[in-house]
Each structure stands twice: as structure tokens, then as C-alpha cells.
Amino acid sequence: MQQIWLSLLSALSLRLVLPGGAEEGLEFPNFDGKDRVLDISERNYKKALKRYDLLCLFYHEPMPANKGLQKRFQMTELVLELTAQVLENKDIAFGMVDSQKDAKVAKKLGLEEVGSLYVFKDDRVIEFDGELSADTLVEFLLDVLEDPVEIINSAMELRAFERMEEDIRLIGYFKGEDSYYKAFQEASERFQPYIKFFATFDKSVAKHLSLKMNAVNFYEPFMEEPAVLPGRPLSEMDIVEFVTQHRRATLRKLRAENMFETWEDDMDGIHIVAFAEEEDPDGYEFLEILKDVARDNTNNPELSIVWIDPDDFPLLTTYWEKTFKLDLFRPQIGVVNVTDADSVWLDMSDDEDLPTAEELEDWIEDVLSGRVNTEDDDEFADDHDNDHLVPEDEEEGDQDPDEEDDE
Ligand SMILES: *[C@@H]1O[C@H](CO)[C@@H](O)[C@H](O)[C@H]1NC(C)=O
User: Where are its TM segments located (predicted)?
Assistant: First the structure.
């Protein structure tokens, strides 16, 4: 009997996956039950390090006794198994390192943060600081497998390069592979895959970018003009230092592949966060205003705005709406305290008008000076000093009963 039910059930779920039944070409991978993730120990870790292009290790606490937590643990393991299965024909090994049982191995490999994923490539370790889902991890590992520098040879590749406005990018012009390009390449390895490195050996590409021989340009996300790295030719250290100093962009997009790294890089305990759906007309327009503000303030080291497109994080949307008491169908900008997720948001309830760039800049100035902060309303629930954009005549009645409802 159970057999029948099982086969009925699997027929049903097949139906869900493949409506119509017969078509092929859209088959999502299902875990096939074969164990591919290694149990790393003193005996096998050296061999695994040597043998594969990449070794991807999950450093975890010992298996918990609690049933619910065990399930969570198994789900993580399943993400790794599925990733290993999907990438089976790549030269990547996966393993689990137990923080107690394998403490010695962890120490030798330099694993520090329990719950983190470390990727070993050649003699480098790259920490994965993104969402632990098979989609994100597969994309990340494919990026890490590639050469850290992409060579641009044609006008078409150049156009693609110019369209990548969300990424931090560097591009250098060199004589050929056997030149100062080597230092550039060495530097790129330290930032792969988070910062994109490009090079060209082509005179007309270089000319289009106004690049002199052995010069390197640095493109901050959403900026129109690149910065030119000082000095020529550049050593590996020159490049590494410049990138390290400039990698926190004035406007940075939150991405699944490094979301935790971005969030941990707060500004004195807070983030200025903007929610905007790029596909939505209001969201798009708000984003354009935000980019203008970022371009005007690109030299202010105090300012970094984290842009979150809710479309990229469907699993987090309801959590954010609840935590920040927001409607994420509309663009929003606010200040979030990363210690307790307390937040204040700019009042943009007026349907017609988004704030202008000037109004947004005034508000940001208030945030940076501390006039707008997450703490004031904790004690004075009636404090309306911050409602800049509410016209005078509307200020009396409490517009937004939800807003003060903090306790
Ligand atoms: C963030 O919240 C914590 C805990 O409530 C508080 O101690 C801290 O001062 C806040 N930080 C800022 C910058 O408001």
C-alpha cells in the first residue's frame, strides 16, 4: 500500500515539475542520493588540497543533539551535496570539517569562523560570505574557477564591460602577458571573485578608455568616470593598497554572493539602506536619484548607502517588512542600527513625489551629523523633528500610526 502511495506521490510531483509530462529541457537537478561531500580528517585533507582545482570546505559545529537543529544541519549538507552534484564534472571537491573532531585540521587550514565556507584555490583561501543556497554557491564557485583577469579584445567586449555598472572593476592596459600585466594579475587573485579585473593589450580599446600604457583605471559602482591609479607602472602592492582603500563604494548593491561581508562592513554600527525594485517605475526613478546623490558625494568617505533590490531576496522580504515595519512595494530609505536592527525611515508616504536629489542629500546630511538617528524615538515617541518631507499643514495629525508603534 505504501508503495502505491509513494509512486502516486512521485507521479504527482513529476507532474508539478513537468506540466504536460513529455517535454524535456527544464529538468531541475534533484539530489540523486550519492554522497559526494567528503568527511575531512587528518588522513585525507592534504590529498584533497593537492588533487583538485578547488576545495570547498564547510566548517561546522558538531552535529547537534536536538532534532530540529539536526534537520537544519542536514539541509546545509544537502546544499553542499546538490552543489557537488551539479558541479560534478568540474574539478572541485567538497568537504565538511567538524570544529571539535577535526580541530587540528581546522587549525592547520586556518579555518576560524564556525558556520563559514572556505574555498581553497592554489595557495589562496577565499571565504564565501554569501547566502548558503545551491544557486548562489554554484555561481560563486564557477566565478572562482575562472581566470581572475578577463582580457578585453574587441569593441563588443568593451561595451559589455561598460555596462557592468554595479560591479567594482579595474582595467589595465599592458603590452602583453609578459609585462607589468603580471603584477596586475597577482593583485587580481587577492580579490577574486568579488572585484572584477580586466586587461587589454589592444591599442584601440585602450584609446577608447583613455588608458595609457601600464595604467590602470578603477571604476566605482554607478560612477560615470573612473579613477586612475596613481603611478605607472604599478606594483602588485600598489594595486592591492588602492583597491583595499577604495573598495567600500558610496552606493553598493547588496548581493547574495557576498551579502554578509557587505552587512558586516557597517559605518560605526549603522547602515544607510535603500530599498528599491529596479523593475518598478518608482523604484527605478528613486534609484536614479540615489545614483545622482552618490555621484555628488563620491569623495565623502563617511557615506556608503546599501541598495537592496527586494526582488533579489524573496526569502527575506517579509522578514524585512516586519522587522523594519515597512512596505517594500515602495522605495524606502532609512538608517538601520546593525546591533539591534532598530531603524528610522524617511517619510515618503506622499504618493506623487519621490524626494529630489537635494532633499535626499539634506536627509543624508542629517543622518551623518546624527540629527536623524535610530535612538531618539526610543525615548521620545512624539519626536517629529525628522519628518522633513511632510508639509507643515499635515504635521499635526499622526500620519502613520504604525511608525511609532515600536514596543
Ligand atoms: C545601536 O543600538 C545599540 C543597542 O541598542 C546602542 O547601544 C547603540 O548606541 C546604537 N548605535 C547607534 C549608532 O545608534
Answer: none
